[in-house]
Design goal:
Helix content is about 50%, strand content about 0%. By secondary structure, it is mostly helical.
């Protein structure tokens, strides 16, 4: 029978292993690092940062943290930051060592608001990254499927009406089924 050594949890880590060795070669972050050129971030963000005072967070780190959320189905920037704190692959992707502090979620949100509000810099960066991802076959813009219910907004929390817009749902559902059947037919399968 083996015994765990809980006291070892608090010992400093002493290893010759690097983060690079710990991230699997087929991990998505490695593919992104190989194929996506993030140099546009520095090029477009340079005018948004001051050359005096304490340096801000590298805008590439902000963009990559924002990108990690939807890529790995993480629901918020706050949760993404928590994941980065414990996930070595994410740290590797961001260029953060195991001892480096991960930027706080509020700092990322504020930097995002202050730097990108009132301009189209984030849009340009987003479109460039998506374009590169499409060129490398990571994503395609052929079809979008969502799972949602349309609910009429009501500011009074004590009174609300839940209304489904069936006409829109039926139209979208019909269109999606037509597309699926058409694609199945093109592939020689039964609709």
């Amino acid at each position: 029978m083996y015994r765990a050594h809980p006291e070892k949890r608090h010992e400093p880590i002493q290893t010759q292993t690097t983060l690079d060795q710990l991230v699997p070669q087929d991990h998505l972050v490695r593919k992104l690092d190989r194929h996506i050129d993030f140099s546009i971030v520095h090029r477009l963000c340079a005018p948004l940062y001051s050359n005096t005072g304490t340096p801000g967070i590298d805008p590439e780190i902000i963009i990559k943290i924002i990108l990690l959320g939807p890529l790995f189905n993480i629901r918020s920037v706050r949760q993404t930051v928590k994941e980065v704190q414990t996930n070595l692959a994410y740290r590797w992707f961001l260029g953060l060592g195991i001892d480096e502090k991960v930027p706080d979620h509020s700092t990322i949100s504020q930097a995002y608001r202050r730097r990108f509000q009132g301009n189209d810099v984030f849009q340009q960066i987003f479109e460039d990254i998506v374009g590169q991802a499409e060129a490398h076959g990571f994503v395609s813009g052929r079809i979008l499927i969502t799972d949602s219910t349309h609910i009429r907004a009501n500011a009074n929390k004590k009174k609300f009406d839940k209304v489904e817009v069936e006409r829109v749902v039926n139209a979208i559902e019909g269109e999606l089924l037509d597309r699926v059947n058409e694609e199945r037919s093109d592939r020689g399968k039964k609709p």
